[in-house]
Write a structure and sequence with these properties.
Layout (H helix, E strand, L loop, with lengths): L3 H16 L2 E2 L15 E2 L2 E2 L16 H7 L8 E2 L6 H27 L5 H27 L4 E2 L1 H12 L6 H14 L16 H12 L6 H4 L3 H4 L7 H8 L1 H23 L3 H29 L19 H6 L6 H6 L15 H11 L3 E2 L6 H7 L3
Helix pairs in contact: 3-12, 4-5, 4-6, 4-12, 5-10, 7-12, 11-12
This protein binds zinc ion (2 copies).
Length: about 375
Amino acid sequence: MWRISTILPVAGAVFRPFIKGKQTLSLAPINRDLTSEETVSGETDVAWGASGDAQSIVATDSEKADGNLPAGGPEEPISEPADWFNRTIMLTAIIAPFLGFLAGVYYCWTIGWMGWPFLAMIVVAWCMSGMGVTVGFHRLLTHSSFETYKPLRAFWMMMGALSIEGSPLVWCAVHRKHHQRSDALGDPHSPNLHGKGLWNTIRGFFYGHCGWLLTTHWSKPDLSRYVPDLLQDKFLVWVDRFYYLWVLISFAMPASIGVLIAWLSGDPLWKGALLGLLWGGLVRVFMGHHITWSINSVCHMFGKRDYQTNDKSTNNLVCALLGFGEGWHNNHHAFPTSARHGLRWWQIDTSWLAIYAMKKLGLAWDIKVPSREILAAKEIH
Ligand SMILES: [Zn+2]
Ligand SMILES: [Zn+2]
C-alpha cells in the first residue's frame, strides 16, 4: 500500500535531477537597467511599484559579475534545493492536485459525466482565482500597470490567494526577480539554463515548469529587496500572513457548495462535499497551476517572438487563451508594465478586457499601455 510517507521521498528522488543544476551557459548579462524600461502613454515609467524606488532591486555588483560569466566559464549552481520542510510542502502542493486530476479522469471513465453544477463550479472557480493571479498578483501588484480603489485591490488579492499559487508577496518577489534576470543566472525559473541536448532540454523544461518550486528561489525570497513597496500595503501583508487560511477557504468553499448541490438534488451530503472538493478544489487547482507554470516553461521555449527582449520569451496562443492573456509573454517581457499583454487586435487577452471594463466603469485609472512609437521601436520584422 502506498502511503504519503513513502510517496514523498520517492517523488523527491524523482524531482532531484530537475532541481539541482549547473550553469553551463550565460545567455545574457543580468545588469539590465529596469528603471526606465519603457515610456508608457507618454509618461516616464518605472518597472516596480508606485514608489519609483527601483534602485533597491537593481542587481548588486557581485551578482552582475556572476551574470556576466562568459559562456563555458566556471560552472555556477542555478539553484539550491530548499530544506526538507519546504520541499515536503511544495511536493504536496504539486502532487495532491495531480492525484485529484487522476481521480477526476477515473471518475469520468468509470462513473461518467460530473453534471452541470460541478462543471460550472470548476469554470467559475478557475476563472476567478486565475484572474486573481493575472489581474491581481501580476498586473496590479507586481507591475503596478493600473490603479484601482482599495476594496477592488483587496478583492483581486483575495481571488489570487485562492488560486493556491503561493503567498502574494512571495509570488510578486519571485516574479520581479524573473524579469530582472530573465533567462540568465539568477532567474528563479528559466527553462533555458540546463545546457544543450535532449535530456538537458527536458530537465530545463521540468525545472522551469515546477522543479524550481523545490529550491531556495521559492523558499527564501528576498522580500525587503524585491517588494519593498508591497510591504507597505497593510491589507496585503495581512492576506499574506494568513495565507494558509486562504488555502483552507479555497477547498472549504467548493466542498460547501458541493454539499448544497447534493442537498438540492437529494444525494448524500458527504458525496456532495467530496465531489465539490474534487472538481472545484483539486482539479481546478491542478488546471490553474499547470497553466501558470506553462507561462514559465512553454512561453520561454515554444512560440513566436514579435519584440526584442534580452531573453527567450515567446508569444504562445494556447497559453494565452488558457492563461487569461498571459501567454503573450514575449509582449510582456518587452513591455513589462503594460496592463495589456495582447497587443494586436486579434491577441485575445481576457485579463486586459477585465481591466478595460473596470476603466469604463470608472474603477481603474493610470492604466499603462505602450504607445505606437514604443511598440515600433522594439518590433522584430
Ligand atoms: Zn518570463
Ligand atoms: Zn511580469
